[in-house]
Amino acid sequence: MRRLNRTLVLDVLKSGDGPMSRASIAQATSLAKPTVSEIVEDLMAEGAVREVGMGTVASAGGRPPKLLEFDARSHFVAGVHVGSRTTTVVIGDATGKELGRESVETDGLPAEENLQRIAQVVKATARHVEAPLERFEAAGVVVPGLVDFHAGVCLLGPNIGWRDVPIADILGQQFDFPVFVHNVSQAAVVAETLEGAAKGESEVVLLYGGSGVGAGILWGGRVFHGSRGITGEIGHCRLPGETGRCKCGKFGCLETAAGASALVARVWRGITSGATTSLAGARRKDLTPQVILQAAVAGDGLARGAIAQIGRNLGIGASWLVNLFNPAILVIAGGLAEFGTLLLDPLREAVHEMAMTHSYERVEIRAAQLGQNAEVRGAVLLAMQRAEIYYRIVFQA
Ligand SMILES: [Zn+2]
After folding, report:
1. Which of these, 135, 37, 126, lies nearest to 94 by C-alpha position?
2. Distance (Å) from CA 112 to ligand 1 centroid
3. Are 94 and 116 in contact (CB under 8 A)?
4. Where does the pLDDT of residue 60 fall: very low under 50, low under 70, confident under 90, or very high at 90 and above?
5. Residue 85: what pLDDT?
6. Which of 32, 114, 135, 200 qualifies as a FRET site for 261, CA 20 to 30 Å off?
7. What are the phi and psi torsion angles at 116 (to 5°)?
8. d(CA 314, CA 299)
9. What is the 235 CA–ligand 1 centroid distance (Å)?
10. Secondary structure of residue 393 in the 3-state scheme
11. Contact at 8 Å (CB) between 180 and 152?
12. pLDDT computed for residue 383 by the predictor
């Protein structure tokens, strides 16, 4: 109860239009004045709330009330997204607003060295925005791969070459604040729900299609972690008829037929078998999803057909998610989502065709809105959720 009341007071102070008196906080939250005063005392002692002057005297007379405001610079959080090529560090204030950002290349270094370097970047960026490290509440780290959420370990990150990397422990030696580790899809579903395509919803599933394929599940407003944190691994469910070897060590996973490299492989097969295409003569190494998209937009049949088939395969995975979770919103995210209707139309058709009518009829399928910023925003927002001082009311991760 105390937690909830504290959340109410903080929320009113954070979202209000300027400084407020204790009486107006009591009115806005429907809490008793002594309860508000007690909570305000605690928040002031922590430095999260400060007095900023006097209000006007009510017509009945009496002393003018002291006005309070939330101090956005009282605490800070760090968000880190380790991408397959680039690692992005963001420093956020106590409201989650971005104060500074730095990007470095991910490639080349072993995981431990990479993390040491990330710690240095966090420290330098914090210094740059004048955010003292002792006022940091938490860091959120987002990695492309399997994560043991409770232990803060990246179990397997094939695209960055990580295996059993104790991220929370290694970064924990550099910092006095807790470090929470999530995977890309979990971060993206949080960011899209709080700030993007699924704003205001609490039953949201996000299907991520890029180099990897996975899902983030927000259930009752909370990230669904399962027993160990390994949930939403739809990319590693077998697609009947597929036999390709997957990075996870198994065969025929959805990811091998619906990920970015499946798209490239499909177009390459078309080129080498002599299909009529504007991409004829392209070298294998120059064939990227972006090049294929450009050709498709210009009307190339091979490129369009390949994108449609990848969309359909993703749609098969999406139909499983719809049947299993019956979300209000299914967000399609990741690099492939940026292909627009070329990919989303066949995806929607597949879901319509394959998911149970009752599961599907009210599900809205939307493209993600935050693009490549979703992961690092999710890292910042998850750090905020986990930082005990900012118990949010929308959800707890
Ligand atoms: Zn797999």
Report:
1. 135
2. 25
3. no
4. low
5. 86
6. 114
7. -65, -40
8. 22
9. 6
10. coil
11. yes
12. 93
